[in-house]
Amino acid sequence: MQMLKECDKLLIQQQTSLQEAVMESFDLEKENTYVVRDSIGREMFFASEEVEHGWLFKSFLNASRPFTISVLPSNSRHGIRVIRPFRFYFHEASVTLLDGKPIGNVKKRFSVLRRVYSVYDSRGKERFRIIGPLLRPWTFNIMMGQKQIGVIKKNWSGLAREALTEADNFTLEFPLKLHPGYKLLLLGVVFLIDFVHFERQMSQKS
Hints:
By secondary structure, the protein is α+β, with helices and mostly antiparallel strands. It has helices at about 1-5, 20-25, 55-60, 160-165, 180-200; strands at about 10-15, 35-40, 45-50, 65-75, 80-85, 90-95, 100-110, 115-120, 125-130, 140-145, 145-155, 170-175. The model is unreliable at about 20-30 and about 200-205 (pLDDT under 50).
């Protein structure tokens, strides 16, 4: 947890390869994997989607599929799992430690003009609200009450990468003094946002 205490920014990079680009061109989904780094490039976590229901199930549901993403630390014991049940609408996910202890959960709220998520702690209290402005589709502001305390941004990955693959890069910013458990919870939110808003064929459902 010490490295997280010293962080006010995380960089989340989805991994891809030439093989994956070819598979995606034929609409063949591979499991998502990510590397999470701090602001100076040190690797902190490796995240991987676990195979649960087979290729046909995954291909049929695409980005609406349920998933479990294990976020494994590079040099400590404090990783998380992000568990998303099947939902076509009102997407949600729970975030736990690797031993199953709950950290919190996130739920997408109904909103016509904005993308809104509520983020709850392990006791069910809303700690944050994530708001995506209508005219800034790659930006999600992290609100605590009426105050913006951070942001989740999808970063431009370059023309070739954006055109040929589904790989997404994100920046997560939060206060330096925020509790490390909440930093892990917000990291879990990034993976849900990636699936709901940026996986292929999901723009019409976001």
